[in-house]
Design goal:
2 copies of one chain form a homodimer. By secondary structure, chain A is of the alpha+beta class. The first copy, chain A, contains 7 helices and 9 strands, in the order ββββαββαβαααααββ. Chain A binds a DNA duplex through α7. Chains A, B: This is ADP-ribose pyrophosphatase YjhB (NUDIX family).
Chain lengths: 250, 250
DNA sequence: TTAACAATTATCATTTTGTTAATTATATAT
DNA sequence: ATATATAATTAACAAAATGATAATTGTTAA
């Protein structure tokens, strides 16, 4: 492939917007208060080869070049593991950023992925070596930084995609333990919506029993969120596609 | 960029799954019967340079290599215009196909896009020169062919994406004239759903008046679909995000 | 013993839906 | 001219879901 009739890119990378939903307050017998966080890394001053690094010192999305034997998805998985020690989580490709000029090093294509990481996986991260370069920020905080490359644009797109995914698919399961209470689910959903039918306790407690993709765990309760004890629910494997044309608007 | 520490792809392409919704039967004063179609091209025996073409004779998605001065999205737009003469339509990127081995010519990355083309734009296509190599097929037909490369997989993903988009966003507008009747909207939606609340006339006629993203065109009717004349509706620019957690299931 | 509190159930008026039927307006066939 | 067929639309009413507010339950901790 030497005499090419077409242009070849100068680099092919995979970036990952790692989201987690952190429990801000965790008191015994109390429903959690959660917030949506994104993981950023601070770019090093020097490359591994010892050269001055591009966009050094700026906060950026984790990611890196795709290796010869892998595709972008595998590269994203590998980078995520290297950065955080996390494996086997929910990750998806959601966009390509390939505008000429987006990276001063040349025509570098970024495959943007997002990942949903349950909170408890992050305990490992805290113990890892370069944890001082990796931080979680609320989305609002993150967007106020002077981020590297076009990462501000990528993050905005990722937030929009993940919001839609949490509300219109069963992706919330990736932020929850296998068995959860209604208030835990409510806490996850409330990080991305203000819908009163979800925020209102009574309405949501009634509704959860009618959702075909959630089932009650029979004869089992937890005191995680209440002294009285609360029923446990789990997602079954039903996937839902509800048209906006049949929803209620009032 | 000669001494690279990372692999560079052998080619960077953009493929487009062009969907249209064709009116199968169009009698005067009668609601249309529509079906979802995808556009395929038959790959030529020879390349422009006169060499034997890869995957020659097979049906494939339109697309081609990204040029040096454009990104994949612009390439998809350009290819679509070259193939069909269509401009200014709804097109989106939905996936990357970059598995090593997917293209025998090397490590060729495909950026998969889908486009939604209103029927009336296609009349131009019929008049174009190489129309004999371009055909519309129902999705079921298309998936039975021995398609080039991994295009079967790409098409399946595209259908899933477009179904979700038509039902959960206002993308149906791209298959309809600016002002449309309830039965025309119903015909579009029925190509991707069997939901009885949409298929049932009375229920849907009642519902359309309550949808916040659709408004009545005052004092204007059409006889396109009925001798009696039917009210006209239009989409306003409201975008909707309805959680599955607040929908009705019965 | 009691206050506090999350979870859950109860109540009831209001709204929406499912279902079936009736009405309307008009082109076409007779 | 008149009747017929047909799509759009409205009507009617029982059944179901929702909104709003209140009451009940079970447990810990003061």
């Amino acid at each position: 492939m030497t005499d090419k009739k077409y242009r070849t890119p100068d680099g092919y990378t995979a970036d990952i917007s790692v989201f987690t939903i952190l429990t801000e307050e965790l008191k015994a017998f109390t429903p959690p208060i959660m917030s949506l966080k994104i993981m950023l890394i601070k770019r090093a001053d020097l490359t591994i080869e010892g050269d001055a690094n591009i966009e050094a010192g700026k906060w950026a999305l984790p990611g890196g070049f795709v290796q010869p034997d892998e595709d972008a998805y595998q590269a994203a998985e590998r980078e995520l593991t290297e950065e955080t020690g996390i494996t086997g989580i929910h990750m998806k490709h959601f966009g390509v950023y390939d505008k000429p000029g987006r990276d001063p090093r040349g025509w570098i294509i970024s495959n943007a992925h997002y990942a949903i990481v349950p909170e408890h996986h992050l305990l490992k991260r805290k113990a890892s070596d370069d944890a001082d370069q990796v931080e979680l920020f609320s989305v609002d905080e993150a967007l106020q930084f002077d981020l590297a490359f076009d990462h501000k644009q990528i993050i905005k797109a990722a937030v929009s995609v993940i919001t839609r995914e949490i509300l219109q698919t069963t992706a919330a399961k990736n932020f929850l333990p296998k068995e959860f209470t209604y208030s835990e689910l409510q806490a996850v959903l409330s990080t991305v919506t203000k819908d009163s039918a979800i925020l209102n306790e009574q309405a949501f407690a009634r509704k959860i029993k009618a959702l075909p993709f959630i089932e009650l765990v029979e004869g089992k309760t937890t005191q995680r969120t209440s002294k009285k004890g609360a029923k446990l629910y789990r997602f079954n494997n039903m996937e839902i596609l509800k048209p906006i044309y049949t929803a209620r608007y009032n």
